[in-house]
Amino acid sequence: MEDEENLKISKKLLKTLTVDTRTDILKNLGNRPMTASELSRKLGKHVTTVSEHLNVLKKSELVERVERPGKKWIYYRLTKPGKRIVHPTSYRFVFVFAVAFFAFVSSWYLFSVDAYPGHWLYGLDRSLEAFQLHVTTNNLEKAKLHIQYAEERLEEAKTIVEREEIGRVKDIMDDYEAEITQAKKEIEIAKQNKEYIIPTLEILSESTAKHTAILENMVTKTPEVEQDIQPALNISEEGHAAAVAELVNMTESGY
Questions:
Q1: What is the pLDDT averaged over residues 219-248?
Q2: 16 or 168, which is more confident?
Q3: Helix, strand, coil content of the chain in percent (nearest 5)
Q4: DSSP conformation class of 83
Q5: Which residues pair with 77 in a beta bridge?
Q6: pLDDT for res 131
Q7: Worst-scoring range by mean pLDDT, 81-85, 180-184, 242-246?
Q8: Separation between Cα atoms, residue 45 and residue 23, nearest integer Å
């Protein structure tokens, strides 16, 4: 039972540590309960962004909502697991915190290396991506990761083209298409669950517009990869158009 508890806490810590804003929220709530608006002012973040992170922390059972009778404000406070993380009372929790932090630092180092298909770290890089997706439970957070990984696939494609290893381009473009497609699916699931999807749609819209420009530039510079890149270009354009249309629709309907 204790091992299961340690594993559970370790995963929550890992997910928290990989996002600085969530760590800052936990630290502030360690002082006293606060509203999303108070945290927004403290952290210098938009209240919508703070609310998204609070929702993730709540689902991870690290914070809880407190609605006070007769008061319109909703406060957030640390749960017992949250308090143990912010104010560890035993070496066991310090150890778990250290393990999670080491995992984060290791991930940061590996992701900072420009690994590309054929590079000796590339397989580990992709495994870490899969692990990060596995431990992320929120659909919108998953969507953001897929968008991030799609951008990384484009950087890898550019590197491969520069190295004149054109035979690898198609596989990378297939992976790019899969990332954008999955990002759209995660956003749709979040929408069905009545989550606030506008900030994530904006990220998808902006990112795919940039991706389209990158892909078009690659085709212009290296025409021989056009056939391999065109499907990815289509997915990027479709993703951008769909995101923009959804944003317009939600804005007009007063979402």
A1: 93
A2: 168
A3: 75, 5, 20
A4: H
A5: 64
A6: 77
A7: 81-85
A8: 13
What is the C-alpha radius of gyration for the chain, rounded to an integer number of angstroms? 21
Q: How many CB atoms lie within 10 A of CB 237?
A: 16
| High-pLDDT (> 70) share of the chain, % | 76
CA–CA distances in Å: residue 199 to residues 162, 168, 194, 202: 34, 34, 14, 5
Give the predicted TM-score (pTM) of the model: 0.58
**Contacts of 150-157 spanning 24+ positions with Cβ under 8 A:** 150/176, 150/179, 150/180, 150/183, 150/207, 150/211, 151/207, 151/210, 151/211, 153/179, 154/211, 154/214, 154/215, 155/114, 156/116, 156/117, 157/218, 157/229
Is 14 exposed, middle or buried (CB count within 10 Å of its CB: 0-12, 13-18, 19+)? Answer: buried
Query: If you search the block for the tokens 């897929």, which residue do you land on?
Result: 146
What are the angstrom distances between the C-alpha of 48 and each of 20, 55, 100, 197? 16, 11, 27, 10
The answer to whether the CB of 229 falls within 8 A of the CB of 154 is no
Backbone angles phi, psi at 75, to 5 degrees: -100, 155
Residue type, 187: I
What is the per-residue DSSP string for 90-108?
SHHHHHHHHHHHHHHHHHH
Distance, in Å, from the CA atom of 145 to the CA atom of 200, rounded to the nearest integer, reads: 11
Residue 105 CA, distance from chain mean position: 17
d(C-alpha 22, C-alpha 190), whole Å = 20
Q: How far apart are CA 151 and CA 89, in angstroms?
A: 41
